[in-house]
Write a structure and sequence with these properties.
It catalyses: L-homoserine + NADP(+) = L-aspartate 4-semialdehyde + NADPH + H(+). This protein has helices at residues 11-22, 24-31, 61-67, 83-92, 102-118, 135-141, 157-169, 173-182, 191-194, 197-211, 230-238, 300-316, 347-357; strands at 2-7, 35-41, 56-58, 72-75, 97-99, 123-124, 150-154, 220-222, 242-252, 255-265, 278-285, 289-296, 337-343, 361-367, 370-376, 384-389. It has 409 residues and is α/β, with parallel strands linked by helices. It has three domains: 2-124, Rossmann fold (3-Layer(aba) Sandwich), CATH 3.40.50.720; 141-297, Dihydrodipicolinate Reductase, domain 2; 337-394, Alpha-Beta Plaits (2-Layer Sandwich), CATH 3.30.70. Strands 7, 8, 9, 10, 11, 12, 13, 14, 15 and 16 form a ten-stranded mixed sheet that branches. Strands 3-2-1-4-5-6 form a six-stranded parallel sheet, with helices on both faces. 46% of the residues are buried. Mean pLDDT is 92; it is low at 394-409. Bound molecules: NADPH dihydro-nicotinamide-adenine-dinucleotide phosphate (NDP) and ligand LTNE7NMQ.
Length: 409
Amino acid sequence: MIRVGLIGFGTVGGGVYERLLHTKKQIKQLLKNEIEISAILVKDRQKRRAENVDTFVTTSWDEFCERAEFDVIFEAIGGIEPAFTYTARWLEKGVPVISANKKLVAERGEILEHLAVDHCTYYGYEAAVAGGIPIINSLKGNLTTTPITRVSGILNGTTNYMLTEMIENHRSFTEVLLEAQELGYAEADPTDDIEGFDAWYKIRILSRLCFGTWPSVTSFFRKGVANIEDWHVEVGERLGFKVKLIAEAWRSDLGVKGRVTPAFLSPTEPLANVRGVTNGISLEGDFVDQLLFLGPGAGKEATANSMVEDFIFHERTTNAIRVTKEGKREQAESCIHSFVFINHADRNRALEWVKQEGIAVIDTYAHHEGEGWIVSSNNSSPFETYPIYGDISKRKREKTIHSAQFGAF
Ligand SMILES: NC(=O)C1=CN([C@@H]2O[C@H](COP(=O)(O)OP(=O)(O)OC[C@H]3O[C@@H](n4cnc5c(N)ncnc54)[C@H](OP(=O)(O)O)[C@@H]3O)[C@@H](O)[C@H]2O)C=CC1
Ligand SMILES: N[C@@H](CC=O)C(=O)O
């Protein structure tokens, strides 16, 4: 008998419960053992989330721990504490833990992975990155020695869903955020999604797998979608660009670097057409050129599916590990242009800035709220600035583009 302890019974925990029950027979066939969900831990009984399940449910950690000699724990509560203490407790006892908790993995994964190794067990976190896409175990199981030079992607389902609905269906920010929460996509505190923290945790986890070490927090920049205004999106769209929250990590001369930022993607970029709750991940490396992964980035079934498959993967694969080596290919700058948005009142200051810094202004677009300028990439912009991915010359242009006269510079 495989005795399962389930910590958390919300969107993801509830999904794991259902997935385990629905695929009991197949799991038994693979693992040659019957699954039994022995206990569920929740926080607030008044929510009655687990009231119709045929399993022991408790709000007491002690009662949960004493209930059974668990063979595996699924953690789906989120946050650092008490999730860290709970996870460490089971790993120290040699019991594997499967987690969907990207914040915990990004912030304490190094300690927890060591604990797992020291106690001859494993810490699985497939579901912590990109919901239903099996990216973590593809890296650990199928790309074990493939050098990777860059990983980039759309890693937050909530904001991609929101941006898609706002742009394509002209719906309001508040309305689509509420919907993303109702659909079970958003974090308990959706600030994590909106301000880019969720994608920031995920890209740090991917970076650890792609480049071999847990990256330092300070080498990963983060900017969420909160400052993007409707007119920025409108200008981008008129020029044929798609706005996406892009997470990216790459090797540089100064070590591994990364960032999360809204960006403007030319239509030729593979991630430009990733819509709704779908996530997309691109891996670039010497032997593979570019590998693309697409799939649901959030939601009950997809995430629960990842957690259960993570358990099965680790049960069947001994020593799943990636051995990294620096890639041979040169790391080209991923973005050589930026979009700068300037309110009318700031126009003279902007002209002064490009003149002083010697920044090339490639194109401008006038809007009644301000101007959007496509400029050469720089780190000195005092205005709202976003990277552009892809070939700007190939973008679909509208005839109405205004090109300002910069000859006077
Ligand atoms: N939703 C999604 O699409 C995805 C979520 N994740 C991650 O999965 C985790 C869970 O998310 P989700 O299911 O959406 O969250 P929910 O808020 O839906 O559920 C959280 C569950 O955890 C329980 N819980 C919270 N704190 C405690 C505690 N201190 N002790 C015991 N139980 C506790 C809650 O109890 P109670 O029922 O009493 O409130 C609830 O059952 C998070 O780490 C999230 O980032 C990862 C991928 C996708
Ligand atoms: N809030 C997250 C859930 C999955 O990780 C997201 O929207 O991607």
